[in-house]
Amino acid sequence: MNTEQLQFLFSLFSFIGVIGILIYLILERSKADIKADRLELFESRVVSLQDYVYELEERLESNKKLTQDEIKDQIIEMYEEGKDLMVIENSLDVPRAKIEMVLKFHKLKTER
Q1: Residue 84 main-chain phi, psi, to 5 deg
Q2: d(CA 5, CA 11)
């Protein structure tokens, strides 16, 4: 082999090396972008969960302040307004069985 062939061979390997490095950098950049997108998604989910927990805590605190009679009155009032049982359950954070029991007793009282 003469020097020109060796020089061509080294140039070829250098070119292949540069192309390999560029491909590696592009792949790593795409992986970093995917990780950043996932991180952003998880952060938004965490923020929404924090907001949801905060709202539930506020609702729980407001319900703790209410007595059982006040809760019963609110259940009856909301039912008479025509609200669905699921809406009453979610807004007052009271189990569905308790709501149904209160409404049954209310219907019995109103029938008498």
Answers
A1: -70, 155
A2: 10
